[in-house]
Amino acid sequence: MSKRMPGFSRRRFLKTSAFAGVSVVIGANGQRVVAETATPEASPLPTTFSESPLLADQVAAGSLPAVADRLPKNPMVVTPVEQVGNYGGTWRTALVGGGDSFWLTRTIGYDFLLRWDPDWTETVPNIAASYEASEDARSYTFTLREGLRWSDGEPFTSADVEFYVNDVYRNADLTSSQGVNPYTISVADELTFTLTWEKPEGFALKNMCSSAGTPFVGYPKHYLSQFHKDYNTENLDALVAEEGAADWVELFRKKGGSIPGTPYNAIWANPELPRMHAWAIKEPYGDTTRVSAERNPYYFKVDTAGNQLPYFDSVTFDVMQDAEVLLLKAANGEIDFTERHINTNQNKPVLADSLEKANIRFFDLILSDMNVNAIALNLNHKDEVLRDIFQNRDFRIGLSLAINRQEIIDTVFVGQDEAWQLSPRRDLPFFNETLAKQYTEYDVDLANELLDKVLPDKDGDGMRLRPDGEKISIVIEVSTSAQQHVDSGNMVAGYWKEVGVDAVVKPEDRSLLFARAGTNDHDCLIWTGDGGFKDAMFDSYWYFPQSTDSYWAVAWGIWYSKPADPGVAPQEPPEAAKQQMDLYDQLRATADPDKQDSLFADILAIAQEQFWAMGINLPGPGYGFCKVNMRNVPEVMPESALFVTPGPVNPQQFYYE
User: Fold this and answer.
1) Contact, 70 vs 297, CB < 8 A?
2) Across-strand partners of 139?
3) Which residues sit opposite 187 in a β-bridge?
4) Confidence of residue 43 (pLDDT cuts 50, 70, 90)
5) Number of H helices, E strands in the chain
6) What is the C-alpha to C-alpha distance for residues 29 and 530, in angstroms, rounded to an integer?
7) Which class in CATH covers the domain with range 83-110+277-369+624-657?
8) Residue 32 phi/psi, 5° resolution?
9) DSSP state of 183
10) Which end of the chain is more exposed for a tag (fewer CB within 10 A), N or C?
11) Nearest Cα residue to 9 out of 26, 641, 603
12) What is the pLDDT confidence band of residue 371, given thresholds at 50, 70 and 90?
């Protein structure tokens, strides 16, 4: 991340690329007050408003209020990247597998209280028109836009946020743990509320701009209270029986939360659930081959000419199990915009050859990933023998030295990447050169020397034996949606066999991959190494056991993060990991960017010494593609899960020329 923490800098700069303007003053109470303003460089709030012809017809028919009555009094003004667009058309994209709901969040679900600006430099208001951050980083006061409405036309007020905090987050039946730093809410009026954490929470505003901000604007009280035992005392049992749910908790989650026994969430699987997004779900995400969404007539954003967004009438997502099918559809011109699953180095020549046929063009991505192939041996394995072996640092170093990274880069990635461990990218204040480059050389002799210290005995085929006499065998699990992981994994398995460690690659649906990791049932998996750029300090799960996303030590991550419904029992981590956790607690408790950088450098120094997990290659420049006539798509945009790409560049203002 940058030296200046988003949302906590002493000085903030007016942005003119996407919003009407943002200003900051220091109030008499010492709080930073952040609010939208009109500036000479930015467009003022329009005085008249227009709408899609589809909605105008409904207004004329009397089935929908006039556009001015559907918008808040101070709608968010989005400045188009190129120009004011045209209404109409359908944006076609795709999902791969049953666990790809984050692409829905990235494309049609990026509307939280706050948001990142398109350049990923500032935290700016969104559903909230302004916010105040206390000097001690414990309390944050938000003021909503007056007149906001859910997609069904009902008002969105502080009561909806209060419902989530008090009746979902702090309800023991629905949320078994409030995490390591619980928070409370106090409501001043229909538009104003304050969230207060037990301890200083220096990442609160960042979380509001990422997918962690979803629940604060995702629980419409008027709809979900009918499924809550504290509100419905009349027919809740009948609703439970009607839905075939086990109890009210399962019913509530099915209607407004993570759906039990599936990889799906109600926000995408329940079309009845009101939402604040530009498009509302029509065909839900489930065991289907298609998801679709149609424009929300109550969406709260307009362009500089007063046209209510979005421009597109609808968005459709083809659901497929194989990324190769997605590549074929893209080459045939059936995908209008994407930057996931198939935008690899090896696929770029295929897409380049299809530019004219598919009528597409490339745009550049500033990647935040620090590794294409992050390899997580399960240091918390349920098999005690494997657990002891995997926790041996010499074993991990030996396996790393056995990997011919340059051959993988040349074969799978067209020679464009760089050998790299799990380390942030260069040009960051806490960059650690040793962490990035240690044990990346291909040295079979040294690999065998280290592995001989751990597993000296071999069978007749030269395969190493565990201390219990059994042949060591490692299953490397990879997602079928990531062909680069399949190809790289097969090469890694071959290198490990050459040094006597039997390994086999197991491709599977990403939802199964994460489910098995979440229950601590994997030997080893390969996934993308997030946390390489501005997100490094936040998405730190490859550097220390931060959460259940620390696939190399899920049970240690559970011990630290105390998640609701963890799935497996926590395991107490070693002292080195505890030291990292303590440093991270200190980091989160301060809003001083220099102190945060220093503390994070200390965390990385321990990661360097412990070598918890390994990587293969730092990705080179990234790309996505869109239709030639899809306008208002930036030529360059950041790419990160934390940034929620392409959400902050406002897909609502994409249009067909």
Assistant:
1) yes
2) 196
3) 193
4) low
5) 22, 27
6) 38
7) alpha beta
8) -80, 130
9) E
10) C
11) 26
12) very high
Q: What is the DSSP letter of 75?
A: P
Which DSSP symbol is given to 534? T
Burial (CB count <10 Å: 0-12, 13-18, 19+), residue 469? exposed
In terms of DSSP H, where are the helices of 109-168?
158-164
CA separation for the pair 22, 122 (Å, rounded)? 10
Calpha distance 654→637 (Å, rounded): 14
Residue 524 near residue 376 (C-beta atoms within 8 A): yes
Question: What's the pTM?
Answer: 0.83
Residue 621's pLDDT band, with cuts at 50, 70 and 90, is confident
Q: In sequence order, what are the residues at sequence separation of 6 or more whose Cβ sits closer than 8 angstroms to the Cβ of residue 205?
A: 6, 7, 8, 114, 123, 131, 133, 140
Domain 371-618 classification at class level: alpha beta
Cβ-proximal residues to 460 (8 Å cutoff; 6+ apart), any chain: none
Question: d(Cα 646, Cα 452) in Å, to the nearest integer?
Answer: 48
Phi first, then psi: give them for residue 487, nearest 5 degrees: -65, -45
User: What is the distance between the alpha carbons of residues 120 and 5, in angstroms, rounded to a whole number?
Assistant: 11
Fold of 1-44+112-207: Dipeptide-binding Protein; domain 1 (3.90.76)
Residue range(s) in the chain whose domain bears CATH number 3.10.105.10: 371-618
Helix boundaries (H) for 377-482: 384-390, 393-401, 405-412, 433-437, 444-454
- Per-residue pLDDT of 434-468, as tens digits, reads 999 999 999 999 999 999 999 999 999 999 999 99
Spatial separation of the C-alpha atoms in residues 559 and 480, rounded to whole Å:
30
Cα 120 to Cα 6: distance, rounded to the nearest angstrom: 9
Q: Return d(Cα 620, Cα 625) in angstroms, integer.
A: 17
- And the tokens for 437? 């480059």
Domain with CATH 3.40.190.10 in the chain: 83-110+277-369+624-657
What are the Cα distances from residue 458, in Å, to 44, 452, 467, 494, 501?
75, 10, 11, 17, 10
d(CA 352, CA 589): 48
